């Protein structure tokens, strides 16, 4: 048999798009898809649970993996529950409403440990158990809804993208959103955008904090005190006297930590956010620091040099894409005693921590994951890095 004939035979015998298969789900990958193996190939399947056997239709085949959609749950998991939202399975906003909350926490914790071991080569012993949220629905204080003209009904659809296309699912209520946001959603539906493709941000603003309409603030008020106390505990454990807060936004972390340090500096590129941060410092009587507007990657080297490195903590709370490489380079060069990295994307977090720890410059002291986003694939992590003694003596 020639090599060409063997390749053709292998292609004909491999799983094909459209064919039906029986899959046993062995894991839930980061992103929310179940993992199964069939004829030597890994398949990813949405809306399943570990231990389930499902009948599925193959929708995509690549060289080393494929995707399939569930047609029937043949052997359901005891962790499977009825989704609260009627749009679940169509809307792409949630991935886990079919799982008990304990199963969601277990899956997310394993995803964090897997990512840290695989991407960063970190020991999972440094990762604490997932901190749960006391409210699993009605917690989200910010949403972005989309509009799309429906030719069939001759009206504007308002809602969220489907989980598998760019089409909009028309929704009249979001079950993970605060009541106030659902009231705003009804107003948008009553008076929709003039054309499709426009986005509308729904938002509930925090009490006692000045936040411009387009500036960042944490999306879950209910678990926010636990997030703050976690960061406070890590700062106390390091015993530093100075704080440099990159990506500081409206100054939330700087202000919440200001009474634990001698002085602080917050850096943020968003000018309205910096203006709000200064007002928030006055409002909360935390005036032992300052806020500076500008790109953190440009300002950090000079700011870190203001304080003794062995008495300085650096806080990072970047977008989910992670830190600018210039920031990581500055931290590695200037060597603050502690880096507290807050992230909603554990994969980019593990990547950036690996960069900081390369060459034994820093060591990972602890990671605390928090479920700031129940029912969804997302989570928040607080990582505590310490400068190694060998680096400190250089």
Topology readout:
Blueprint: H1 3-13, E1 20-24, E2 27-28, E3 34-38, E4 41-45, E5 53-61, E6 65-75, H2 101-120, E7 142-150, E8 155-161, E9 168-170, H3 179-190, E10 199-203, H4 224-238, E11 242-246, H5 252-257, E12 263-268, H6 271-283, E13 289-293, H7 296-304, E14 312-316, H8 325-334, E15 338-343, H9 346-357, E16 362-370, E17 380-387, H10 389-392
Parallel strand pairs: 4-6, 11-12, 11-14, 12-13, 14-15
Antiparallel strand pairs: 1-5, 2-3, 3-4, 5-6, 7-8, 7-10, 8-9, 15-17, 16-17
Helix pairs in contact: 2-9, 7-8, 8-9
Task: Write a structural description.
With 394 residues, this protein is α/β, with parallel strands linked by helices. The chain is built from ten helices and 17 strands. The strands form three sheets. A seven-stranded mixed beta sheet has the order 13-12-11-14-15-17-16, with helices on both faces. A six-stranded mixed beta sheet has the order 1-5-6-4-3-2, with no helix packed on it. A hairpin with a 3-residue loop joins strand 5 and strand 6. Helix 7 runs parallel beside helix 8 and helix 8 runs parallel beside helix 9. The chain is globular, with a radius of gyration of 24 Å. The N and C termini lie far apart (64 Å).
CATH architecture of the largest domain: 3-Layer(aba) Sandwich
CATH H-level superfamily title of the largest domain: Vaccinia Virus protein VP39
Helix content: 25-40%
What is the top-level CATH class of the largest domain?
A: Alpha Beta
- Physical arrangement of strands within the biggest beta sheet: 13-12-11-14-15-17-16
Q: Which class best fits the helix and strand makeup?
A: alpha/beta
Task: Report the span from N to C terminus.
Answer: 64 Å
Mean pLDDT, all residues: 94
Q: Could you give the count of β-strands?
A: 17
From the 3D structure, determine the CATH topology of the largest domain: Rossmann fold
């Amino acid at each position: 048999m020639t090599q060409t004939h063997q390749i053709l035979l292998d292609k004909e015998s491999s799983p094909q798009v459209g064919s039906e298969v029986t899959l046993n789900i062995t894991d839930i990958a980061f992103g929310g898809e179940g993992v199964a193996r069939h004829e030597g190939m890994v398949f990813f399947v949405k809306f399943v649970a570990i231990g389930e056997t499902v009948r599925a239709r193959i929708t995509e085949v690549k060289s080393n993996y494929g995707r399939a959609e569930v047609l029937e749950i043949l052997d359901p998991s005891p962790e499977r529950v009825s989704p609260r939202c009627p749009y679940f399975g169509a809307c792409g906003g949630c991935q886990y409403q079919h799982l008990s909350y304990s199963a969601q926490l277990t899956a997310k914790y394993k995803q964090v440990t897997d990512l840290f071991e695989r991407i960063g080569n970190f020991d999972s012993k440094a990762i604490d158990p997932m901190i749960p949220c006391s409210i699993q629905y009605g917690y989200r204080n910010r949403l972005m809804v989309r509009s799309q003209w429906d030719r069939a009904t001759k009206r504007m659809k308002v809602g969220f993208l489907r989980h598998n296309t760019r089409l909009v699912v028309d929704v009249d209520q979001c079950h993970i959103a605060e009541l106030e946001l659902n009231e705003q959603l009804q107003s948008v539906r009553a008076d929709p955008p003039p054309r499709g493709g426009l986005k509308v941000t729904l938002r509930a603003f925090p009490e006692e904090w000045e936040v411009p309409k387009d500036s960042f603030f944490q999306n879950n008020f209910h678990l926010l005190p636990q997030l703050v106390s976690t960061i406070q505990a890590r700062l106390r454990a390091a015993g530093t006297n100075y704080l440099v807060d990159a990506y500081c936004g409206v100054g939330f972390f700087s202000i919440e930590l200001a009474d634990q340090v001698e002085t602080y500096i917050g850096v943020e590129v968003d000018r309205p956010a910096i203006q709000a941060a200064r007002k928030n410092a006055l409002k909360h009587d935390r005036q032992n620091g300052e806020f500076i507007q500008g790109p953190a990657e440009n300002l950090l080297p000079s700011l870190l040099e203001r304080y003794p490195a062995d008495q300085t903590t650096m806080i990072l709370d970047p977008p989910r894409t992670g830190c600018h490489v210039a920031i990581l380079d500055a931290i590695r060069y200037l060597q603050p005693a502690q880096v507290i990295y807050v992230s909603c994307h554990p994969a980019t977090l593990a990547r950036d921590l690996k960069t900081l720890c390369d060459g034994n410059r820093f060591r990972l002291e602890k990671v605390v994951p928090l479920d700031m986003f129940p029912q969804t694939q997302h989570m928040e992590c607080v990582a505590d890095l310490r400068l190694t003694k060998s680096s400190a003596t250089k």
